[in-house]
Write a structure and sequence with these properties.
- It contains six helices and ten strands; from the N terminus they run βββαββαβαααβαβββ.
- By secondary structure, it is an alpha/beta fold.
- A six-stranded mixed sheet has the order 6-7-8-3-9-10, with helices on both faces. A four-stranded antiparallel sheet has the order 2-1-4-5, with helices on one face.
- Helix 3 (about 105-115) packs parallel to helix 5 and helix 5 (about 150-160) runs parallel beside helix 6 (about 180-195).
- It is about 30% helix and about 30% strand.
Length: about 230
């Protein structure tokens, strides 16, 4: 049976203008990702991983190319629809957590759903369930500055999940964590992929997620050089 890809990219290109020079963040990549995959983007700093995630997340626009995610033609969306896309279709987990420092853990997690127009009571109930699942039930009213790195990243994961997006994008989510907490974050993402059916795309230069990944895209100088790096 033919299964339509949840992510379909064709000739995806992002050129940055730096002074008098053009620099290719992405040099024209084409790939498809099936629903329910756990894809690791591998490559050194400057390889194009973060650029690709920014395009997938609707945080940047390409110089040329085509991108469809969960049925959305991302680059044809107007600003209003792009905001809706970012709130409903993709959940993003950043290396630096990006929690609002004046909001509590519970408030940070609820915020994307409230901005998307969901009512407070069911949003709060959903946030409490995710935070309990992530072992954060004793930190609900703490501010981000009172959390450990692992706790902050688990809060960020709950925030990414609050609108139940079909795609989770993780940009070096273990980069600011020690080995134990980094492994725990990867295990959480693996469980979300395996048990909840989330499609996960995770950028990393490390091997921490290799064991749970179903596919690997290797980038170098803005190009995919091998999309089956996990194979011996």
């Amino acid at each position: 049976m033919d299964i339509s890809p949840i992510i379909d990219a064709e000739n995806l290109t992002r050129i940055y203008r730096l002074g008098a020079a053009d620099v290719a963040g992405l040099g024209g990549v084409t790939f498809r990702i099936a629903p329910g995959a756990f894809v690791v983007l591998k490559g050194n700093s400057g390889s194009g991983k973060s650029t690709l995630l920014a395009l997938l997340g609707g945080l940047d626009r390409p110089t040329q190319g085509r991108l469809r995610v969960a049925g959305f033609d991302v680059f044809s969306l107007n600003e209003k629809d792009l905001v809706r896309y970012r709130r409903r279709v993709v959940g993003i987990v950043f290396q630096s957590f990006n929690l609002l420092p004046t909001l509590t853990v519970l408030e940070n997690v609820c915020l994307p759903a409230l901005l998307a127009g969901f009512p407070l009571k069911p949003t709060r109930e959903k946030a409490l369930r995710w935070l309990e699942w992530l072992g954060m039930q004793d930190r609900l009213h703490h501010l981000p500055g009172e959390l450990s790195g692992g706790e902050a990243q688990r809060t960020a994961i709950a925030r990414a999940l609050i609108n139940e997006p079909p795609v989770i994008l993780a940009d070096e989510p273990t980069g600011n964590l020690d080995t134990r907490n980094g492994q725990r974050v990867v295990e959480i993402l693996g469980t979300l992929n395996r048990d909840y059916g989330c499609t996960v795309v995770m950028a990393t230069h490390a091997t921490v997620a290799d064991a749970v990944a179903t596919r690997q895209l290797c980038l170098r100088d803005g190009l995919i050089v091998d999309d089956q790096c996990l194979q011996p």
